[in-house]
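To close the chapter, one final illustration. This time we ask the reader to focus less on the individual chains and more on the assembly as a whole: which components sit near each other, and how the overall shape emerges from the parts.
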Amino acid sequence: MKTLKTIMASAVAMSLALGGSAMAEGAKIGMITTLSGGGAGLGVDVRDGFMLAIEQAGRDDVEVVIEDDARKPDLAVQIADKMIQSEKVDILTGIIWSNLAMAVIPSAVAQGKIYVSPNAGPSALAGKGCNANYFNVAWQNDNLHEAMGAYANVAEYTNTFILAPNYPAGQDALNGFKREYRGQLAGEVFTKLGATDYAAEIAQIRDSGADSVFFFLPGGMGIAFMKQYAASGVDLPVMGPAFSFDQGILGAVGEAALGVRNSSQWSKDIDNETNKAFVASFQEKYDRLPSLYASQGFDAANLILSALDKADVKDTEAFRAALKEADFKSTRGDFKFGNNNHPIQDIYVREVVKEGDVLTNKILGLALKDHQDAYAEDCPLQ
Amino acid sequence: MSTTLLFEQLLNGLQYGVTLFLMAAGLTLVFGVMGLINLAHGSLYMIGAFACAAVAAATGSFWLGLVASIVAAGFAGVLIEMLVIRRLYDRDHLDQVLATFALILILSEGCRMVFGSFPLYLDAPGFLAGPVTLFGGFQYSAYRLAIILVGGLVALGLYLLITKTRLGIRIRAGEADREMIAALGVNIGTLYTIVFAIGAALAGFAGAMMGAIQSVQVGMGEPVLILAFVVIVIGGIGSIKGALIGSILVGVVDTLGRVTLPGFFNLFMDTAAANSVGAALSSMSIYVLMAIILIFKPEGLVSNNA
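The assembled structure is written out below.
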């Protein structure tokens, strides 16, 4: 069945090519993402956003193979090997977590594959370790945290307690926050990745004399932290990147999240046609509000599609030049790549509000304009 | 570190230990009485949390949810014992591990099919949602305090069940010599089902209680399961008393390790390095504890042969 589909797809592609059309041949995309276990909500959103874009493009010459990494680095590496060697995919995408990204991406791009990241953007791949075959359509890990650091200055916080899990993105997060933040740190704590109990950390916050709390805890970790924080009686203002307050999480946190400020490169109320159409069609198809992860999946697919329109994926040089042009309509509005193939984009501050019965985010204002990551200058790419 | 902070952290460790105990008690009973390694114990924890969240969302009552969690997990336990586990008693441990691991995958994916991939909402009931003020203006989460109390009551109940009731006598006899009590006319099949159901219900209850302060999501049981295994190995496999001592030890060591180690390394390292070294070492602390205890007491703290 699958072979039949591939044959048909190639037949369509060939007839188009023979018909003298400028349209390039199709491509096989391998998506490795987290669809089971604790972080599944993030992967499901990326996948759904991605597939929505592929479906809307109506191109049956683009085949997407999806596999679940269950947030396990070893499994992700196995899947990547299988996709590259036996399934012969042209492009890889989908990884959510930075520790998995570090296990897969360097070897995949070394084997000449293109990798388009819809989420993880570890600093190690943005500076000296950047690669012409690696594109990040979401952000470099530090970016949203830098925006929150800038916001903390605006809000005149001078003694912030900061907290993140002990893994590459967690370290990037705290470094990002500290890069922009000018006040004192009341404390700095790394927690275990996947931890669900934050009583010890909350007690430290209470004891530290802080005037605000910044935390980066994606997925279920953020839910657990917010609920326990609300119950603890510590009432310092809380802020964080969108990952701690995305649409998938808010429902589970409940009212405890109301009023919290968070930073994001995307929000469902960014005012442009692409975004409006995306939010409406996502809601119609999946019957829930999209999260920033869904928008990143959607943008990743549209970026790949835009490059496929211009160049043949087998011609790596031309294809990555086409990717770098970023000639697609992003849900974020303006979007372009820096020299290190990471985005230069606006980052907003949002507030958690209640619309009817649904908790969601609303943009308060711009935190950083045309923001580029701090590692770009170490990257030898032009 | 101030004394109130230390006291608060000790309470946190105690609360963490009590939750672990609810998991470990069932696990150690099942292992002690039936000689069965049950990896699917964490899935029963998850079932309890989901049942509680679903019923609480439908009825608006956390208490009904709590009852539902015990019933659902207990019922799932009976079903699993009768359909799967019963065929495994005579097999070796590798077969049991394989079969119960398969159960984890089936139950997790089943849960995802029914409830979806996104975490569910479950919150503590109103009067327990906020903090309470203990002596000297010291504030502590009311819900966590309630968990400590409830966990203590469950431990007491289990102690009475095992030592004072006929069922308890049979359970102890089953641990000591299962052929003999079968020969004495005790229906060993029913006894096993009951023990498994008790363990399952306790896990489900723990899942529901923790679900209210953590996130109710697929796969939430496995991290707790691993710790529960550490606890029963430390405490001595098959011993409820050992499970209680082991879980409180693990809870306190883990909590204090998380708090004190980064500060300790900060004495002779810069903050960033101390934080990451401290965080890395503190996540190892309970395994170090387990290793040390096993060196001196290879059978665990409370050996069950008495």
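Chain B has a mean pLDDT of 88. The CA atoms of residues 42 and 221 of chain B lie 4 Å apart. With these observations in hand, you are ready for the problems at the end of the chapter.
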